[in-house]
# Entry
Amino acid sequence: MAIAGALVAACQPKVVEKVVEVEKEVTRVVEQEVVKEQVVEKTVVVEKVVEKVVEKMVSDSPLPWKYQPLGTPNDGKPITLTYWDWHAPRVEMMERWFRQYTDMYPNVTFEVTTIPWSDFWTKTKASIPAGQGPDIQYFHQNNHQTFVYGGLLEPYPEELFPKTEILETFPMTAEWLGPDGRVFWIPTGAMTALIYYNKDMFEAEGLTGDDIPTTWDEFLDFAKSLTQYDAAGRVSVSGFDVNGAEAGNTSGVAYFMWKNYGHWKWDEDYTRPCYAQQEFIDSLQWVVDLKEKHKVVDPDFLQLTDAFAANMAYMIFQWSWYTGDLNLNNPELNYGCRRVPTLTGDFAPCAGNGSPDPQSIVVPVTTPAERKPVCFDLIAYLYSNPDFLVDNALTLGSPPTAPALLNHPLLQSDESIVAAGPQSEWVMYTHEQGSPLALEEATKYIQDGIFLSGMDVKEAVFKAQEESDRLTADFIKEVGKENFHVAEREYRHADQITFGECLM
Amino acid sequence: MGSFASEPALRGHGKGLKQGTWTIVALAIGPLILSYGIFLIFPMIYAFVMSFTNWNPVSMRTPLRAVGVANYSELLFKDPLFWTSLKNTIYYAALRVPAGLVISMVLATLINSLRRLKGFYRSIYYLPVLTSTVAAAIMWNWIYQPRFGLLNSVLASLIGSLGLQVSGMPRYLMDAKMAMPSIAVMSLWKGIGYDIVIFLAGLQGIPSSMYDAAKVDGATGLQAFWHVTVPLLRPTIAFIAITGVIGSLQVFTEMYIMTQGGPVNSTRTIVYMLFDQAFVNSRFGYASAISFVLFAVIMAITLLQRRVLATEWAY
# Structure
């Protein structure tokens, strides 16, 4: 008995401990349930808010494609998406929209990295295959060949991006489909080059933007009349500055003008681009004459963006991304925009070449599988949202590619978009940048040879052709003809374009 | 007997000491060997193997396959850009290294002869070394701007003050003939401080008795410099010349920021070409082959330099 008593006594504390443990467990479970209920309640509230926001967005949207959320992203668990971009004005805009998405889905946050354009593509090309790239990144059509045909991008899922509706909303997408006709990115904005002019300087001369001629010949006379010189006869204020180290300015004018002649660059079976066309030589000569014969700008004068920001150029030729750049970095500069001239004044057969910047966010193929649905939901939310598309267009100075938005009042009041609008319709996109070496080398001979080293135009173009032929052939052989894609034949006015005579 | 008794204990003690030493040695150099192996040796072996393939990590649809020596034969026999780049690289090294060597040695000798402000001058010359190459390159881009740049403005003022007419100022980075020397000048400005510090260390290692002896023998300052300083600085000269050549043959950042290899490839160097092939054209296999050809060039030049500049200790 004593033993039993001792045993009971010995066991007693354990029983008590167990009871306490059980009580604690019950409390914990009850509390958890309460928390769960709270979570469920909150989730329901958030979902209702989201539903209302989306409902409003969908009902107000003039776009044929409507956002259909797949549910709470990442099942409500916290997730931080990494995003890479190169363009400061856009980064500022994206951060605004990311905050809005986070307001809708508080579990989704963003980590934004800005990498300068000069390093962006080398960094992404090195990082993505190594699985160290971002979850989402901005994309540029220059890399369509490398990224889309190289298998670096995840196609947009059909359930969120029904192809028929996407094509109806953004018809230009048809020009940029990837292998098997899949959508890898959406060209939401049609960037083109514009003539930027300094309104204050124009006003001082009693001129307005409407005085800017629409044919190249008249434009040359106009620019000449505006140019001012110092005592030594050097240009002190340029009528039209085209100086620049990078493609898209000096030789960019010539590339743009070349397209006015209405010839394809590539041969019939896309094996060889032909730079050695008399029309291209003439276009380059026009730019050389602009400097050397007509003295509208000295080769030693400031680069176009520096001169424009310093009120030392009446007009410059620049891509419309510059609008966002000016607004961010030179808000005090009173500038305006006009279309780029053509040979005849008409846009037909082609207003200019394409190094436009159809804008899109993409998802690298190496983004972890569980993160991809959130990335695509975000993209769908943004690109089906008219407010975002308008904001995007205003930030980048690019008319939206969604026809339903073209008459949006905010866009109609923006000078760069108004100027770019009709021209964008006649711009030919070329994205054979899968062979960057060929283009780079060809461009270098043209840009540096002619404009820096005083090479004869024809000689430089022939040299460029020679280099281009060798490198393009090697490149196509390496990637395989089936993986090589050239876009120019997708030009919407293809019926007006012919094959020019190749002099080599 | 006593000594016999203590022998095993000594042996054991010695063995224990040896084990301990090995442990310390392993702990000390193990991480170094490991990190060296992972981050240097392995990538080198990997790159060497990949230089015999069509390695293109960006194109996930292009299967990796061996191409034998095709990359090397293309580089050496078919790619004219390689020989242009090699010629440019050697030209840059020929401009940068001897000039750097002479100027830094002279400046170091002058600074060393100062009684005061030695530290001040050393710091002044060393400051550009601490500056980021990118920032320095951007700044020099503006200095070299033909019309509004500092250099030509000063030149124009000087010429004007002499009552002469200014016609056709130098175009520096925009001129295919002047671009490389212009970059070399910028690089000299940027890197000379490092060489000066090394020379100063070398100069301080020369016993003053040598100069006293030269003085007693009636040597002038220039003779003392030529017959005492220069021979005794030979190890330092060899070090700066060899590391300078290695660095110059790997030059990249200056060209990348200032000229992008132009005008007309006049500043395109081997490493620039390597970068272009790897990160622009995604031809990593070809770029690996370039890196090993560059390695061979550097190795050959370094061995030659070691032979020519072999130290003969004078004291």
User: Anything to note?
Assistant: Chain A touches chain B through 38 residues (CB under 8 Å). Chain A has 17 helices and eleven strands.
